[in-house]
Amino acid sequence: MPRERRANIGRRTRHASQQQVYSRNLREERQNIIRENDRLRHRVSTRRSLASYNRLAFQYDPTANYSDDENLDIGRMTTICRYCNALKFKRETVGLCCASGKVKLDPLLTPPQPLKTLFDGSDPDSSHFLQHILEYNNCFRMTSFGANIIREGGFMPTCKIQGQIYHLHGSMVPTPDEPHQFLQIYFISSMVDQLNVRCNIQGAQQLKRRIIEQLQAFFHANNAVVNMFKTALERMPSDTHKFVIIADCTPTGEHVRRFNAPTVNDVAAIIVGDPTKSRDIVVQRRSNIMHRVNETHRLYDALQYPIIYWQGQDGYDITLKMVDPITGVSTNNKNLSAMNYYAYRMMIRTHEENVILKCGRLFQQFAVDMYVKVETERLAFIRFNQPKLRSEDYIHLRDAIHSDGDVQNIGRLTVLPSTYIGSPRHMHKYAQDAMTYVRNYGTPDLFITVTCNPKWTEIERELEPGQKPQDRQSISAKTQGYDGCAY
Q1: Cβ 319 vs Cβ 259: under 8 Å
Q2: Could you give the strand order of the β-sheet that contains 242-245, starting from the edge strand earlier in sequence?
Q3: Cα–Cα distance between 115 and 108 in angstroms, integer?
Q4: Taking CA atoms, which of 20, 167, 269, 413 is between 20 and 30 Å from 473?
Q5: CA 238 to each of CA 232, 285, 287: distance values in angstroms, whole numbers, following the listed order
Q6: DSSP 3-state of 465
């Protein structure tokens, strides 16, 4: 008998055909993924389009060398600012270095011997000096460095400080039975005794006596601040007189924006009494009281970092003005901020040697110290401009008034706006943004953290000979990654 025909044979045939088409498409998709990974793995020189990066994280291949892709290389620092000749990466902000020509400072001069050979590596002890440059600077600083320095065990490539930083200075001559410290060491009559005291400073046991002796003679001959203090000590008739370094005084006949080496007659005075301003540096001949140096004083940097400011030249001052980018004339309506000043100082420029970037661990402390100064200046602006920020309209202040009933019991409340990074309002704004993204786009699929690898080619090729990535945190900060979500 003929075999009975099944009624659902057509449906089964169609289902088998669909399975074949699905398997074929699946094989083709897998083959495309394999070909894409092979292309990355074998370092094909053809440039990828940006569209090909779409959802590439879901197809990540751990065996592929993604760093060979040309789109992932940020290039060299070949972009030159047309205002200040600063070298930058091609995608860096135009006004990062000099605010588009509004900041103009005198260049840091190349130091003479023996600092020059110690920096450029021609001295046989150059490597030792750069490795212990922070300790050598501590032997000659004129103010103390007050901060809670975090010291961790093992390798610690960065400088970490918790809390506030402050610089303190004492008198020129110590009280009886007290040892010489900081500025007082410069006034020991015998140079041999000075050398012995510096070699016995805490942390100086691993330093070389020959280098300390050379630097001691160098600063006595070239540092104008040291000579200014020595001259003032000779002119002081008694311990009751005070030597005042005026914060905003400019040498006669000089431009207000220049950073001059100070002289006694122009920038300092010896007085009796207290007709001084809060920002002035007041030094007595003999006293056991420590005074704080205001961070906006023009000698704040030179007193703490004599190796960087080897001439004793002026640093940042709040009275400095920006300039017109076309004429170069100083403007009277816009002050130069600390952020703009130090951003200018830490840039690499053509035909100009930047000594700051060669100081290794000393540069790390200097960068942290100056960043605290930048943050202090921003907080001071917010504190003194609360009416402009309309802080009385903030809801938390009104709640405090209603709850306490007495405005005098509230104290002096300073409200940080959302524009201040790290403030409660700034963090609250980011939290609100994150919830808005989720509401509009849904929950994210991935949370990606991109960190900086100090072995990246972009970092290593910008280092000076003999430098390590931790010696140039300014480059590492430019290439660091970020945290973010992917949909």
Answers
A1: no
A2: 268-271, 242-245, 281-284
A3: 14
A4: 167
A5: 12, 7, 12
A6: coil
